Amino acid sequence: MFAFLIHFLVMTGIFAIAAMSLNFQVGLTGLSNFGQAAFMMVGAYTSALMYMAGVPFVFGVLAGMIISAIFALIIALPSHNLRADYWAIVSIAAAESLRLFINNEKWLAEGPFGLRGIPRPLSSLFGDNYAVFYFFFVLACVGLVYFALERLNKSPYGRVLRGLREAEDLMEALGKDVFRFKALAMIIGGLVAALSGSLYAHYITFVSPETFAPDVTFLIWTMMIVGGSGNAKGVLVGALVITLLNTSTRLLKDYLYLPTSLVAALRTLSIGVLTIAFVVARPQGILPEHKHVISHAGEEGVS
Amino acid sequence: MQLTQLIFNILTRASELALIGISLTLVYDLLDFASFAQNSFATLGAYIALFFSVGLGMNLLLAAVLAVVITGILGMLTDRAIFRWLRHSSAFIRMVASIGLAQGIRSLVQVLWGGQIKDYGLGVQEPLTILGATVTPIRIVIVIVAAAAMLGFHLFLHRTNLGRSIRATSDNRELAEATGIDTERVVLYVWFLACAFAAIGGILIGLETQLRPSMGQVILLATFCVVILGGIGNVYGAMVGSLIFAAAENIGIAINIGGFQFPVRYKPALAFIVLILTLLIRPTGVLGRKES
Predict the structure, then answer these.
(1) N or C terminus of chain A: which is more exposed, having fewer CB within 10 Å?
(2) Where are the alpha helices (DSSP H) in B114-266?
(3) Quick check: is B261 in a domain?
């Protein structure tokens, strides 16, 4: 039970990072990124491959984040001249193309078989208590990401992002370089999502193109919607609730005596139903976004 | 490859895509959001037909008709249960709801029928040779059914009162309401039609290949591509778009320029390339998109 609890918390942390990244792009800026899993995939594969090649862990993770940021910039390019729903389709198409590339180019990362036995950093130091160590490591990353993104959110930059979400033309009329702000939001989100992917790869020790199927993107979306899009605390709650649903069914299958595939289908079914229920009955999520009231307009210079 | 063979391959693929494309474009036109769920309705329709034909031993044609009607009714129920409450939400919220719905339907299919590959039990088809092209009879049926469905739909839109109401509501909802059209009822009928068309598409795909819970989902990008290519919200655009897309896909793989051959394993990426090119060159699609 303790092992399960630790596993559950580690998974919650990893997905919370991905969900906070998505929240920064979607909940805050209004950029409907439907390719989030691909950014995680870039982080996961880059750091796994580099660590397996002998590059120190931290450099591999950073490299993954940089490549993910470049990918984010490329996806952001057409965001300016496309309608929001068209761009959403472009983001899912780009993510799927990247997955197709990894799947087909076997020389790069074993294609559909995926990377097995990804080493865990510092594993010799912690032995049996590795999961506990990893939990604190992930927790530190969650804290870091949370405070960094909250800081950005409260900054004048964050205010422009929220402005873009509410009234893009107004921001343009105010002289903001809309594309630059959107691209930055995508890049920051991409950096964070890659970190989440790396953390996943070195914990689970196996990744394949299937690991980052569009379903994963949807799972992260559900966390954001259920928790409360636009509110980072809400997104953390959402990650907790959905991960509980997602991991506990794996625990339950030992007691339910149902075939694994059936349990998996029931799990995705319940997540789909939960999403619809929230969208219809409580679209603001468990913890709604705070109202931002700017009482002293002009006190801080908006750059 | 022989030209007649190429044309036949294009026609088969276009037929399947056009029907689901019409489904997507109808929902987009009347409800103003890109629904991710239409492809899942195609899957559902194919499985319901499987239940009636293989499960209950019914005649395949009767099973297909029943499945199409039932899927249409399920579409109407979906609107009552979900989308009716989201009429005034942002398009993006409706889109998320449709993704949830897509995942729900696919999971439900997996719960009810299992994840293994199934078929309608038609057995191995003896291929015919027509004008030098090798064609299985079922593919001829697919093209004829799709063509008949589209022609019927065209006549329905232009010759019946309900069809005219749909066109009027799609052009200008307020004006339609002012002339006494019950637009909420029109929306319900559109859900029926859209999901019924998706079901026909799903059954045709199931006839040509096999049934699996992800059969609709795997052509999601292709469907979006077809619809944007033809001009989203435009029913005839979906037909033209599917022809162009199927042609690009089949010719793209058939051509061989100076030894360079497009790798077949990247065939799904063609949808993405065509999509990006359309959006860059002519974002309104070939036949144009209605501005809403």
Answers:
(1) N
(2) 137-159, 161-171, 173-178, 183-208, 220-230, 235-254
(3) no
Q: What is the pLDDT of residues A110-120, one digit of tens each?
A: 888 888 888 88
B228: chain A residues, CB-CB within 8 Å: 86, 89
Contacts for B168 with CB less than 8 Å, ≥ 6 apart: B175, B176, B179, B181
Pick from A89, A272, A275: CB nearest B34: A89
In total, how many domains does chain B have?
Answer: 1
B38: three-class secondary structure by DSSP:
helix
Q: Is residue B8 part of a domain?
A: no
Q: By residue range, what is the domain housing residue B30?
A: 15-213
d(CA B168, CA B174): 10
Asked whether this complex has an ipTM greater than 0.90, the answer is no
- Whether the CB-CB separation of A234 and A2 falls below 8 Å is answered with no
Asked whether residue A60 carries a pLDDT value surpassing 90, the answer given is yes
A·B CB contacts under 8 A? 116
When pLDDT is cut at 50, 70 and 90, the band that residue A65 belongs to is very high
**B23 located within any domain:** yes
Cβ–Cβ below 8 Å for B279 and A279: no
- For B20, the 3-state DSSP assignment is helix
Model confidence pLDDT, tens digit, residues B121-171: 887 778 888 887 888 888 899 999 999 999 999 999 899 999 999 888 888
* Domain assignment of residue B34, yes or no: yes
Tell me the Ramachandran region of residue A118: left when phi exceeds 0, alpha when psi lies from -120 to 50, beta otherwise: beta
Instruction: Output DSSP code: residue B88.
Output: T
Tokens standing for residue B135:
């064609």
pLDDT at residue A253 greater than cutoff 70: no
